[in-house]
Amino acid sequence: MEDKRILYVSSEVVPYLAENEVSLMSYDVPKMINDQGGQIRIFMPRYGNINERRHQLHEVIRLSGMNLVVNDMDMPLIIKVASIPKERIQVYFIDNDEYFKRKATFTDEDGVLYPDNDERAIFFAKGVVETVKKLNWVPDIIHVHGWMAAMLPVYMKHYYKDEALFADTKIVTSVYGQSFDGTLDKDMLKKVTFDDIPESDVKYLAEPGYENILKASIAHSDAVIIASENLSDSLDKFIRDLGKPFLEFQPKDKFAEAYTNFYRNQVL
Question: Comparing C-alpha atoms, which of 107, 154, 192, 196 is closest to residue 9?
Fold first, then answer.
């Protein structure tokens, strides 16, 4: 994978958030490609529970300052950056005071989903793409991890479909069993179609529970990786029935070779 450019877009990444299936793989996979001589960038939201001082985040003024429109509202985009110690891996953080200042990731102290999680996901997707455009960095592959990142394939295939920068970029979604209860805002479909995305292409978002959000991401990806051993039968069937290239679940000690071969043989 030497000199290949891979953009990793994730809901959660260690060491910035607690260890779980998503956050660990969102570190392990980029590190593996970095060790092979690939060029990588990692993007994640700058949640308020990330300790900026400890992790030495700092704002990138030349990338910040633009406004993104979410559901007809202008929301300022702030970009911060940090480096994972010892790995020489840069991580970019998408930030906005309205969406990401609160001191938790997805839920309040009572475990209730934030009512604007759908807008946060839209803002995150747009923020990543706009920042990559400013960096003028052309990824060969965009690899998406976690449901907060699931709108990125949707926006890439519709909202940004005419961007010459991404003409040859392929999108991979890793699908995890790590879920949430209930649904995001019932108006999520309306907010996404506000951006001229055809309703028929995102019909799953009419009932924006975990699986339907992932289905929208999978449907707009070029290839899929089953990243959990305990994936639900319905998501597993959805992936297999689409007929797109997909990689079966790989245990920790075997994923490196399998992912590399999948990128090389099924995606690029």
Answer: 154
Quick check: pTM over 0.90?
yes
pLDDT tens digits for range 12-45: 999 999 999 999 999 999 999 999 999 999 999 9
Which helix (H) or strand (E) segment is 126 a member of? helix 117-135
Q: What 8-state DSSP symbol labels residue 204?
A: G
Residue 210, token pair as written in the block: 């975990």
For 82-114, the pLDDT digits (tens) are: 999 888 899 999 999 999 999 999 999 899 999
- The structure tokens listed for 85 are 């110690």
* Among the listed residues 56, 130, 133, 144, the one whose alpha carbon sits nearest the alpha carbon of residue 94: 130
Q: Do residues 255 and 145 lie in contact, with contact meaning Cβ atoms separated by under 8 Å?
A: no
How would DSSP label each residue in 90-107? EEEEEE-HHHH-SSSSSB
Measured distance CA(73)–CA(37) in Å, rounded: 41
